Amino acid sequence: MNPGLFRHRITFQKYNESAVNENGFPLEENQRWQDIKTVWAMIKTLQGREYYEAATTQNENTVRFVIRYTSGINPDMRIKYKNRTFEILSVINDDELNKTLTIIAKEVV
């Protein structure tokens, strides 16, 4: 595993339905996402059959993130990368070796 390939900083966020502000009022919908974990990732574009299968659903930007293995990542979360937001479609433990996770995500527009 080449650590130089993991050069993109991404943040995992989890939705909190019961989030309130300092006065006890519920937060707006877009403010209920809380940062859970920030990690280094490798971003890979989809190629070949993967790209065409993803493109058939709609004109979506589907991306593959590869991170070092960490527990607690699930499809209920989302990813923040720079000023972009991605909805997690699947989380795959590569070869079941607990070394890397491949995360397939689509950009939220």
Automatic annotation (TrEMBL):
Origin: domain of life: Bacteria
Classification via InterPro entries: Phage_SPP1_head-tail_adaptor, SSP1_head-tail_sf
Name of the protein in its database record: Head-tail adaptor protein
